[in-house]
Amino acid sequence: MRYLRLLGIFANTELQFAMQYRFNLLLEVMQIVIVSGTSVAAVLVLFSYTTVMNGWTLPQMIVLLGVYYVVQGVEELVFQPSFERFMEHVRLGTLDFILLKPASGQFLISFRHFQTIQVVQVLVGMLIVAIGLGQLGADLTPGNALAFVVTLVSGFTLIYALLMVLSTLCFWVVRVDNILAIFWAFIDAGRFPIDIYPGWLRFTMSTVVPVGIAVTVPAQAVAGRLDPIGTVTTAVGALVAWLFASWFWHQGLRRYTGASA
Predict the structure, then answer these.
(1) What is the 8-class DSSP label of residue 256?
(2) Residue 94 phi, psi dihedral angles, 5° rounding
């Protein structure tokens, strides 16, 4: 409960800062709505020429697109701003001010900063998912819904673990911006099912940059295309990734030399 209260405080602080520039917020909301709307329109145009794309029906593709915007929204809402600020603290030697606070250092560097406007993208993504689920109708079962929630949370965990590991590299290599830029490029590819890509790209998006798992697997789960073994494997893989990221963070922390050193 303590950390939930801290999250609330952090989010409220960032919201107050963002509200100073209300016209800018309005423009960003318009941009999010237009981009997501055109993506849905593109899918509708594509399926006006076919009924199935590599085994994916229109409702399933709409769900996948919604999941993509939810995952991207969460990543840009909290992970991206927090990890970028964390790397800046390491570069300047000011991480001491974070580590001396009476809370988990990993929690603070992971969830301290928010781009509150990205809440809109998360909500838009959830709306698109709801529309897709409505079109699935009788194909949606309680088991599929549970698998969807489990794999979606696992996807968030995988993205978090990857960004944590990449950001922690700054303890050894101070500027890792170019490495993160590669990740941002792969995020865009996640708006389509990974099984439509060539083998090498499919492998990369399932292992090295698991954005394919974070987006495609939840959509497969809710569409009934993922068996229980796949759901459990995804959850276990996410847990292992989180444990490794936490261990790697502590290893990197041992190399830190701050302003007080």
Answers:
(1) -
(2) -110, 15
Among residues 145, 121, 140, which one has the least CA distance to residue 59?
A: 140
Q: How does 24-41 read in b/e, with b if 16+ C-beta sit within 10 Å?
A: eeeebeeebeeebeebbe
End-to-end CA distance of the chain: 34
Domain assignment present for residue 258? The answer is no
Single-letter amino acid code for the residue at 124: V
> Would residue 176 count as lying in a domain?
yes
Domain that holds residue 106: 2-253
What is the reported pTM? 0.85
C-alpha 104/C-alpha 123 separation (Å) is: 29
The count of domains in the chain is 1
Q: Between helices 211-222 and 58-74, what is the axis angle to 10°?
A: 140
Q: Tokens 């847990």 — which residue?
A: 239
pLDDT digits (tens, 9 = 90+) for 177-232: 666 777 777 777 777 777 777 777 677 766 666 777 888 888 888 878 888 898 99
Tokens for 228, please give them.
């229980």
**261, part of any domain:** no
CA atoms of 54 and 136, how far apart (whole Å): 18
DSSP letter, residue 194: G
Q: Kindly state whether residue 182 falls inside one of the protein's structural domains.
A: yes
Task: Tell me the pLDDT tens digit for each residue of 159-176.
Answer: 899 889 988 988 888 676
User: In angstroms, rounded to a whole number, what is the distance separating the alpha carbons of residues 195 and 53?
Assistant: 10
CA–CA distance, 169 with 91 (Å, rounded to integer)? 12
Integer Cα distance of 118 and 153 in angstroms:
18
Task: Write the single-letter amino acid at 201.
Answer: L
